[in-house]
Amino acid sequence: MKRIITLAYVTFFALNCAYSQGINGVFGAESGMLGSCNALLSNAFSVVNNPAAISDLKKWQVGAFGEKRFGQKELGTSNFSVAVPNKWVDVGAAVNLFGFDKFNQQRFVLSASKKLAQTLALGVQLNYLNTTIGEYGNAGAWVLGAGVYYQPVSKIKVAFMLFNPNQQQLSNKVSDKVPTYARLGLSYKVNEKVDALVETEQSLEQKTIFRSGIKYHVNKRIAFGVGASSQPVLVTFGTSIQANKLAIDVAAQVHQILGVIPQFSLRLPITTQQ
User: Fold this and answer.
1) How far apart are CA 113 and CA 105, in angstroms?
2) Residues with Cβ < 8 Å from 118, sequence gap 6 or more?
3) Which of 52, 113, 214, 271 meets the CB 3.0–4.6 Å disulfide criterion with 90?
4) Strand, helix or coil at 177?
5) Contacting residues for 242 by C-beta, under 8 A, at least 6 apart
């Protein structure tokens, strides 16, 4: 009986927040361990999280991410991203997958960003979202996104991400709506070892989400992170390990009732001839 109740709760939670928690969620276990603060992090997953942050990368980077929400394979999410910074326009592409054979979603992303000044970058994003529900068929929509990445002083960074500003909807075949949301984040470098992040997200149909995280760099190869977020309330923690060029991120997000969301991601820079 307990398992049935838990599965029912998980299903209700997942379908009501399918877009925000599935293909439109936060990607990268580095973000996952920091309370899901994501707009400020500059890595391959910035292609999805905030395209403007691609401009802070020095090299090409590829990333792979996976999570299994509350241990349910039907709520699995995966992502593959590649970010390509260069001296003209920084670009990136990503694929997000969520769900199982009876209910699944895909998101295909193309992003571009440009530094307007040494401390300011703007980014744009073109998304194609597709939802398939069993015998009911599928529906898709083109959705826009835009981001800002700004560093007013050496220790502070500010980021902003706006998704679906024109409130695009799927066709009548599928009842799910594409959310419209804005994320605003701020990070402060306390010292050489500690970074503090805070972020808020506001959508048109859900309450404001608050996120926070602290990352502690033990040395150049190992870092630990803790954080928390609301809507739903999650406590997060994890570690990042730099193994030569490969960065390995492992995180866990804990819900008081539903349990643990394990996350894992890999990030690898690629050196190219400029």
Assistant:
1) 26
2) none
3) 113
4) coil
5) 220, 221, 222, 248
Query: For residues 43 and 242, is the Cβ–Cβ distance under 8 A?
Result: no
Q: Helices marked H in 60-147 — which ranges?
A: none
Q: pTM of the predicted model, to two decimals? A: 0.87
Is-contact 92 47, C-beta < 8 A?
yes
pLDDT in tens, the chain (274 residues): 344 334 334 443 444 443 345 667 789 999 999 999 999 999 999 999 999 999 999 899 999 999 988 777 778 899 999 999 988 899 999 999 998 888 889 999 999 999 999 999 999 999 999 988 877 778 889 999 999 999 999 999 999 999 999 888 876 555 567 889 999 999 999 999 999 999 999 998 889 999 999 999 999 999 999 999 998 899 999 999 999 889 999 999 999 888 899 999 999 987 554 4
Three-state DSSP at 8 gives: helix
CA distance 26 to 251: 13
For residue 152, whether the previous peptide bond is cis, meaning omega lies within 30 degrees of 0, is no
Rg of the chain over all Cα atoms, to the nearest angstrom:
18
CA distance 185 to 201: 9
H/E run at residue 6: helix 2-16
Distances (CA, A) of 45 to 58, 109, 145, 207, 235: 15, 11, 15, 25, 22
Q: CA torsion sign, 27 to 109 to 78 to 20? A: positive
